[in-house]
Amino acid sequence: MSISHEDIGDNLRRIVITGRLDMPGTESVASKLEELVAAPKKGVVVDLSSVRFLASIGIRLLLTSARAQAGRGGKLVLAAPQPQVRKILEGAGIDQLVALAP
């Protein structure tokens, strides 16, 4: 698991997660994701294009991050999930709570 980011201007942060958001993977990136989302940015894009698997604990982390961002008046978008990850997000109804970008 790895997590990286880049700031795009003053109001947007792109976060890239790579690997599996299963129990060990989620635990390895959770504190870093929380830290990155806590930055004073209005928009956060979480790039899921390199996430190969998503478990319920990973979904919880993404939802918690989206809620935290919304609580600060910002928005979090989940971007480019692989087909199997998109299917999990949509099946769990996460696309109704957090925006999914192609």
How would you describe this structure to a colleague?
The protein has 102 residues and is α/β, with parallel strands linked by helices. A 5-stranded mixed beta sheet has the order 1-2-3-4-5. Helix 2 links the parallel strand 3 and strand 4. Helix 1 runs parallel beside helix 2.
Low-confidence stretches: none
- Strand count: 5
Major sheet: arrangement of strands: 1-2-3-4-5
> How much is the radius of gyration in Å?
12 Å
Order of helices and strands: EEHEHEHE
Structural class: alpha/beta
Strand content: 35-45%
Query: What is the helix fraction of residues, given as a range?
Result: 25-40%
On the 0-100 scale, what is the average pLDDT?
A: 95
Topology:
Blueprint: E1 2-8, E2 12-21, H1 23-37, E3 43-54, H2 56-71, E4 75-79, H3 83-91, E5 99-101
Parallel strand pairs: 2-3, 3-4, 4-5
Antiparallel strand pairs: 1-2
Brief sketch in words of this structure:
The chain has 102 residues and is of the alpha/beta class.
Features:
5 strands, globular, 102 residues, 5-stranded mixed beta sheet, 3 helices, alpha/beta
